[in-house]
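We both want to read discrete structure tokens more fluently, so let's practise on a single case. Once you have written the record down, we can walk along the chain together.
***
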Amino acid sequence: MKAYYYRIAAIVAVIVAGFTTRAEAQYYQMANQLTNMLQPALSGSFNYKGFVDATATFGMGLNRANFIGVSTTQGFQYSSWFFMGVGMGVDMAMATGLENAPLTGVPPTSATYHNSDTTKVMIPVFSDFRFNIGSGMAKPSLFIDVKIGATWLIGSSYLQLANSRLTGQAQFLLRPSVGVRIPVNQKNAKQAVDIGLTYQLLTANNAWGYINSNTTTLNSLGVTASYEW
């Protein structure tokens, strides 16, 4: 009986060792890939790259707003398929769906007496990660772009929504896009025009509801057109 348990223990040990070796190999490959991506930046041989984006998204849900804006991103092309940079922009937020706002019987709050507008300028600041899917940069390809950051209202007034108001504090911003990259210069593959679909998520945990402070989420869907160089 003891010999049987010894055999079982030996088999388990071999299996665990196999998984451990495989995991170590995967981590080793990931470390090599990360080193290969960082090496151009550390050696000074990385490629600078810039983008200018024009975006229009249209709100969905009860608390919603339409957004029209422009932004620029500056960063480095670490490989033919990966770009990383930082950027900022200017957005015009236009609240919609205000006909659903409660009109009577609402207890007053400090937000009730605060100046609010249905159209506000916002300043987004973000990190930008872009992935190209295709055969290099000289031919048309697909792209996936993800912007993650924060955005702020300009001015002292709040942005009035259907049953909430955004304050001037930082709001979380997520803006992923997917689309087509089209090179426009045969002599310089870095120059291209991008057209894609864009989803925008804006989350505020410091908004004012008509009863008390609350968390407000704005979802919008639209299009983005970009020029890159």
User: Anything to note?
Assistant: The chain is about 20% helix and 55% strand. The chain has two domains: 1-45, 46-228. The two ends are 72 Å apart (CA to CA). The helical segments are 2-43.
